[in-house]
Amino acid sequence: EDGIRDVAVTGVQTCALPISLDGWSEEGAALHRLSMENRWQDMTNLITDEILDEFCVAGTWDELPKLLDQRYGGIATDLTFSADLTKEEDHDQIADVVRQIKAIRPFGAE
Fold this sequence. Notes:
With about 110 residues, this protein is an all-alpha fold.
């Protein structure tokens, strides 16, 4: 759900340009219109699984570092992800995931 909300909000930044450039101009225009009407909650209904997959990487904790590396290794300088840290037992695993993500080769690295 966080990813859907993030993509919806990203879709309206600079007049929905990110989503429009990726082939969803109608959705981008609708997201922009909803933002102008201050209907932020309604925006998430416009984000399809296809759009979400284009803008987000999703997987298990074990899969995430490899998926991020495959998609962004060598082409990105920064990566952001969110983690629910309410479960104490997840802290060590998430710390390991963060360590692996930090090891992904950034843009410009040889």
